[in-house]
Design goal:
single chain, alpha+beta, 7 helices, 28% strand, globular, transit peptide
């Protein structure tokens, strides 16, 4: 066995590599030779200058132009000369379009630039106040629980799929276990796969309900819904999920008398927090709404919006995920209402109903949004309505390997805690309007 030689010495090295003329610091080193006779150094003590900040960068002094005086530069010499001023050349512009060196115009020079800001809600928005903030922005009254006719569809055994519980559990196992070789797959992988498996099970009911064939799923469509709330301008914009479109619209959930009674509802505020918190502020925007589909599209009515929390960019809490579901369902309903009835604010003769399902791969949030009015400026008058079912877990655990603590199996391997009531509500929302 080779001997390990330990010796101590002091070395002087520059600490700040960015500033080579900075003062050097003395650092005490311990050096030894390992088994391969390679010197290994360890830092045992050092001065405080190693941990100090780098010196601040020098600010460039602005050039001063004096009328009547010509600056003498080294432009004609084509190289640097001490004592001569640095020349300034006009910006060189290419005669062809190069996408790799494109510089867009300034915001102030754009034709769509406006002085009044617009607050935009998009896919990356994470609202601080959650559902309260979403209800205020959309002028909506919250009703806990799903509508009675949706619950009756969920409890009716004639609407269930053959071997429903077994096939749903196989869909979960396929998304969590069989689709990957990873011991713990990421949410961005199993969450979309689980949603597609459940939708595939729902589509098998087209044999019993032919009206399901008059629907289509749309992905990666861009939505734009514009409205005024108080003195501020708001817009829902961008891609928001998977949308199930239908030829015929969903029937209204609440009758006219119940819609008129919403005028007595008082919206909950969250003062002193501003309703526009966490929303993107933009001065370049269009005051126009668009459903994301061209005119004459065969499936013009939105049926159900599916929103996923994959956790690739950021993790959302359940409260923020529900708020995201409400705002996007409202945006789809508002864009279609403005396309059918015009952009003028008004109380709709026939309300627009859009359903919503949000999931993180384990728990589900269900919502039924009914747009009663597009007059969203004042807090008074008729309100919109939303029926919300919160935190419905489809299963408790899905483990590839068992969870063992202190030599005791806490959670066994496989699927545990399956709850069939969640998929019954999922299927009822899918069958709504076709049964």
């Amino acid at each position: 066995m080779s001997k390990v030689i330990m010796h101590r010495f002091k070395a002087t090295i520059p600490v700040n590599t960015r500033n080579p003329w900075a003062e050097s610091k003395r650092i005490t080193l311990h050096s030894r030779l390992n088994r391969d006779n390679v010197a290994v150094h360890r830092f045992f003590s050092m001065s405080s200058g190693v941990c100090s900040r780098a010196p601040p960068q020098r600010k460039s002094t602005p050039e001063v132009f004096i009328p009547g005086l010509e600056r003498i530069t080294y432009a004609d010499r084509m190289h640097y000369m001490p004592g001569l001023a640095k020349p300034t050349f006009p910006q060189w512009r290419r005669d062809w379009h190069d996408p790799h060196h494109y510089s867009g115009p300034k915001y102030e020079e754009m034709p769509l630039n406006k002085e009044t800001p617009c607050y935009i809600f998009n896919q990356r928005t994470n609202m601080l106040e959650g559902v309260k903030q979403a209800l205020w922005l959309t002028k909506t009254k919250l009703i806990k629980g799903l509508p009675p006719h949706v619950l009756s569809l969920a409890e009716d055994t004639t609407n269930h799929i053959e071997n429903q519980d077994e096939r749903v559990q196989n869909a979960i196992k396929h998304a969590r276990f069989w689709d990957t070789t990873e011991s713990r797959p990421g949410r961005e992988r199993f969450c979309p796969k689980l949603l597609q498996n459940l939708l595939h099970l729902c589509r098998t009911e087209q044999v019993n309900h032919p009206a399901l064939g008059k629907r289509i799923l749309a992905e990666n469509y861009s939505l734009a819904a514009f409205w005024e709330r108080g003195e501020d301008l708001f817009q829902v914009r961008g891609k928001n999920g998977i949308l199930l479109n239908s030829i015929s619209p969903l029937p209204a959930v609440a009758g006219k008398e119940e819609v008129v009674s919403t005028a007595d509802h008082v919206l909950e505020t969250f003062h002193p927090i501003s309703p526009t918190i966490d929303l993107q502020v933009a001065h370049t925007y269009r005051t126009k709404s668009h459903t994301g589909f061209e005119d004459g599209y065969r499936y013009p009515h939105a049926h159900t919006l599916f929103v996923m929390e994959t956790g690739v960019k950021q993790r959302l809490e359940a409260e923020q995920l529900r708020a995201k579901l409400i705002v996007f369902a409202f945006g789809n309903a508002l864009a279609r209402a403005q396309a059918f009835y015009g952009p003028q604010p008004q109380v709709l003769e026939q309300p627009v109903v859009v359903q919503g399902v949000a999931t993180n791969g384990r728990t589900f949030q269900f919502a039924v949004f009914q747009l009663n009015t597009t007059e969203l400026g004042p807090d008074t008058g008729v309100k919109n309505m939303v029926w919300l079912e919160e935190d419905q877990p489809l299963y408790d655990y899905a483990k590839v390997r068992p969870l063992i603590k202190k030599k005791v199996v806490q959670v066994p391997a496989g699927l545990a805690g399956y709850q069939p009531e969640t998929f019954k509500k999922f299927l009822a929302l899918y069958l709504n309007g076709a049964v």
